[in-house]
Sequence to fold (298 residues):
Amino acid sequence: MHPRNAHKQGYDFDKLINVTPSLKKFLIRTPAGKKSIDFSNAVAVKSLNQALLKHHYKLNYWDISEEFLCPPVPGRVDYIHALADLLKSDNQNKIVNNVRALDIGTGANLIYPILGERVYKWSFTASDINPKALQNADKIRIENALSTKLVLQKDNEKYFHGVIEKDQTLHVTLCNPPFHDSEHSANKATQSKWQKLGKKPKNTLNFGGHSPELWCKGGEVLFIKRMIKESKHYAKQCAWFTSLVSKKDSLSSLKLSLKKIGAVEVKVVKMTQGQKTSRFIAWSFQTHSERQAMYDPK
Fold:
């Protein structure tokens, strides 16, 4: 994990249970004798998240219904730390303060604004196409006195239009896109995951989620390509546009799209959590000096 990731040494279940006593009933012992939870149990995973967010990020309240995606906190905060390093690389290796970020498809869990604000005091705009998801995110925002501005995206084929204001400038956008290209492929991946967990395959995820969060026509490649095309119209309003990319094979097609559209700089940043490797692609239409000028305090 990232060197600044609070979870790089694993979970201290004693401390987590101290702040969220309900987690105790989900504890199990691994074959090596260590404390853990059954990660195939969606309720246990949510309880772990609640404890992590309360203990490490001082949240008073966090909850989602079973229809919504329950994010793995350690992996999500790795993305935030890596984005902070991306901005830092433009700023003489100094952490950028007063960062203005846009979370595209924030979901009901509001995880990136929570982590970005709590760890780095970033200021967020967060959008989603689902009013019910935003309603839940708003409750989390209010209960924890977060400064995030929530915006309903009314056009499900747009990312920035109707969200970024005319004179608004941003340092970075981030997104966790729907990875699959159909409900069938999403279910197939789900069944494979259950098998890896040693459980009988079924069509429900241990981390929840519903169709707009898990799949869309064309999968992540088409989703991100549309984002790339639209981002050109906001080239001077944002230093870096970024998105997670689930499949390594998706990168070549995305890089080609960025070359064709005239991106000045493109980076692929790898992140490792245990045996899992994830990545995000970042692109900018600005030069290094133009981006650096955006980081100066205003």
